[in-house]
Amino acid sequence: MASSGIAQKPRFSAAIQTDGYKKLINNTLQDPKRAQRFIASVSSAVAVNPALQSCDAGTILSCALLGESLNLSPSPQLGLYYMIPFDLKEKRDNKTGEVISPATTVATFVLGWKGYAQLAMRSGQYKNLNVCAVKKGEFVSYDPFRETVVLNPISDPLEREVAETVGYYAFFEYLNGFKKELYWSKEKMIQHAERYSKAVAPNKNRVSLRDYMAGKYDAKNEWAYSSFWHKDFDVMACKTMLRQLISKWGIMSIEMRDAFEHDEKVVFADGATDFVDNNDITQARREISESVQGITVDESTGEVISMPDEAADTPGDPDAPNVASASADPAAPPQMSMADL
Q: Cβ of 286: how many Cβ atoms within 10 Å?
């Protein structure tokens, strides 16, 4: 793991008021009014999620400052990015038995699909960008050689809303006319989730995604289904489609590449990052599961209707981002370091 020690720290509500944290925020943002707004918005996002309140305060602040550097709001209602709690087990030296790092709960930076879309549009290179679910009867054909998709959309919005989802479609067009589109069946999406996310892969306590969707699981093991793949599959599928399409074919600004590289990672107090699935992680706690069960998302718009935060998977996606880049936002604040806190 990139960071070997995680010191126990006070809860975020107390830590954010300390001189050390306030100094770090002010030095990073270089604007007192922006710092005040940042503290208020992050405190609000943490306050509405009981599970997040128990996270290591340093990892919460690191996630939030990363989001701020990308000019994204932490508000869960907006769905631009999320701070997801994960439990890390205590680690001991195999020979001496000495505690290397204590058990702790850390916040993970998870970019929402609308965050991906917003960062892409900011580059000024995209004329059109869209991602959506494909309903039964809409898919006609897919040519893997030309990568073209033929769809027959259901014209009645109400009929389309209740129709069964059979796949997912993403599309973009540059200002210069270059276009690219991508289609995945729902079955392919399920296989992708189970392959790249330990939070989804079946085990002795957790059935497959297919069985979970069919209601074929033991309710007493509900805690094992806290991944947002379980709680809102369509939202995670839309994010995956944009990630796959833009990382392979899209123009990625430095800002976008930063988001891509930090997505679904823990940002530790010393600035190191790591995928939570690469660590020895406990099963998500019951309160984390309960904190995501109440989410309601409007399928047509992607808007989060009810709180609290989403709990997402932590895939070690092997796809590397496209190195083509546009100019970074000169107004973005400098990178922060929490090593001295």
A: 12
Residue 145 lies in a domain: yes
Q: How many structural domains are present in the chain?
A: 1
Residue 211 counted as domain residue = yes
Chain position carrying tokens 């297919």: 210
What is the pTM (predicted TM-score) of this model?
Answer: 0.67
Range of the domain at 46: 12-306
- Structure token digits, residue 281: 């992680």
User: In this predicted model, what pLDDT tens digit does every residue of 83-96 receive, in sequence order?
Assistant: 888 877 778 878 88
Q: Which residue intervals of the chain are DSSP H helices?
A: 12-15, 19-29, 32-47, 50-53, 57-69, 113-122, 157-162, 186-196, 209-213, 228-231, 233-249, 254-262, 286-293
- Write the pLDDT tens digit of every residue in 176-203: 999 999 999 999 999 999 998 888 989 9
Q: Is the dihedral of CA 16, 22, 24, 26 positive or negative?
A: positive
Strand 148-151 and strand 165-174: the pairing is unpaired
Report the DSSP pairing between strands 139-143 and 126-135.
unpaired
Phi and psi angles of residue 95, each rounded to the nearest 5 degrees, phi first: -90, -45
Q: Which residue has the tokens 């990308």?
A: 70
What is the Cα–Cα distance from 47 to 45, expressed in whole angstroms? 6
Contact 89, 106 (CB under 8 A): no
Residue 146 placed within a domain: yes
